[in-house]
Amino acid sequence: MVSIENEDTLTSTRRRETALACVRAGIDAARPDRVVDESVRLDGDRLHVAGTEYDLSDVDRIVAVGGGKAADGVADALERVLGDRIDAGAVVTPDPGEGERIERLHGDHPVPSQDGVDGTDRIRELVAEADERTLVLAIITGGGSALLPAPAEGITLDDLQRTTDALLDAGAEIGDLNAVRKHLSTLKGGGLAELAAPATVVSLVFSDVVGNDLSVIASGPTAPDESTYDDALDALERYGVDPPTAVRKRLEAGAAGDLPETPRPGDEVFDRVTNHILADGFTALDAAREVAQERDYDTSILSSSVRGEAREAALTHVAVAEEIEATGNPIEAPAVVLSGGEATATVRGDGVGGPNAEFALAAAVELPDSSTLACVDTDGRDGSSDFAGAVVDGDTVDDVRAARQALGNSDAYGYLGSRDAIVSTGATGTNVNDLRVLVVE
Questions:
Q1: Alpha-carbon gap, residue 108 to 312, rounded angstroms
Q2: Is 248 exposed, middle or buried (0-12, 13-18, 19+ CB in 10 A)?
Q3: Please, which residues bridge with residue 434 across strands?
Q4: What domains are defined for the chain?
């Protein structure tokens, strides 16, 4: 079960206690040990994954590879299910543990590192040995885009780092960011499936992407890609990013038709590939809703797809709280309104912030006294901070001017820390996007 630091201080009211209970339940429901145990089982030579059966009698070798923030936990769970049926494997993750059959390798997020490059090279070695009697279990989880860098020819790690940094600072949405990364990498955008062919590839996916687009989750290493070099160039232009010369040169060469595109839908490299989404944002929302209902709250899931600038989306949640209080619509108090998705936060200063912190602080400025709002990133790391998010009430902000200054300097945590509002969990071992719990008494 996820642990929340300073929980006694944070749960000073019934509303706060309910909000954090919902947060905990949501994160726990998406933890790899629980998800894999419910979705994957071995019955003799029959491997069952999310209702699909795979005959292992025709398989000579099982290799498990992948990466992301939940990859270590998924690897642990697979070792428990398959044991010595796993012949080899490697995953790249920010906090690697110890594995018996699957190597655990370190990588960095959200900006790729040399460790990640080295770990990805090991995965490439393992997959390159696959043949038609190999089963590749691909562990694809949120954060895999940064953790599995494999720079394309002519692109250096520094090129990737600078481009990624600039897009993140500009508040680029994940689809745009990944359109660029897929065209600068050899494994993304179906590259892992292409390398593994003609092996059977079964992907175990933990989605941190609005809409569960397989081509976007971890930049889609086992999924067909419909983005193009032109799309990547367009993303750089729209966010005002001037990339390193090598990056622009490669993207322009691809747009001119001088480089092959990523594998498209219908490509034969996907003939023996199956992708299973085992957990997503709704996994967390559904578990949070169950806790709220057990506590006799009327509940509503506003959306699992909230996106856009965090400080703007926050005002919608304030409006919902106001409407419940004033008219009893869309549900009557006591109520819990839940939402997920992935908001963004454009960096405007040099403070410590993140999308969930900005969401919480922007809401707190106008939140009714009857309401509490908890906003967390389910991976335990909001943006580039070391915090999961925050829990705020209508009285959290006692100095509106100071709160707005903090937002203007991208320093939401600077303000919220002084108000004992920060939720800190450490790395949770999973990643299914943001989770927000609005409690109205």
A1: 30
A2: middle
A3: 341, 377
A4: 7-29+282-440 (3.40.1480.10), 32-150+185-227+262-279 (3.40.50.10180)
Q: Are strands 52-55 and 200-206 parallel, antiparallel or unpaired?
A: unpaired
Q: Let me know if 346 is exposed, middle or buried by CB neighbors in 10 A (0-12, 13-18, 19+).
A: middle
- What span, in angstroms and rounded, lies between the C-alpha atoms of 241 and 237? 6
Integer-rounded Cα Rg, in Å, for the chain is: 22
- The string of pLDDT tens digits covering residues 67-121 is 999 999 999 999 999 999 999 999 999 999 999 999 999 999 888 999 999 999 9
pLDDT at residue 224 in the model: 97
Angle at 103 between CA 100 and CA 104, to 5 degrees: 110
Give the strand order in the sheet containing 298-309.
298-309, 335-344, 434-440, 371-377, 389-393, 422-423
HEC profile of 206-266: ECCCHHHCCCCHHHCCCCCCCCCHHHHHHHHHHCCCCCCHHHHHHHHHHHCCCCCCCCCCC
- Looking at residue 301, its amino acid is I
* Alpha carbon 77 to chain centroid, angstroms: 19
Q: Which residue matches tokens 């600038």?
A: 309
- Which residues of the chain, if any, have pLDDT below 50? none
Q: How many alpha carbons lie under 13 Å from residue 366 in its C-beta half-sphere?
A: 16
Please choose, from the candidates 190, 141, 146, the residue with its C-alpha nearest in 3D space to the C-alpha of residue 168.
146
With CA atoms as reference, report the closest residue to 166 among 116, 227, 239: 239
Q: What pairing do the DSSP bridges indicate for beta strands 61-67 and 134-141?
A: parallel
172: its two tokens: 């680029």
Per DSSP (E only), the strands in 5-129 are: 40-43, 46-49, 52-55, 61-67, 88-93, 103-106
Answer whether 222's CB lies under 8 Å from 192's CB.
yes
Which pLDDT belongs to residue 267? 96
* DSSP 3-state of 56: helix
The strand pair at 371-377 and 434-440 is best described as antiparallel
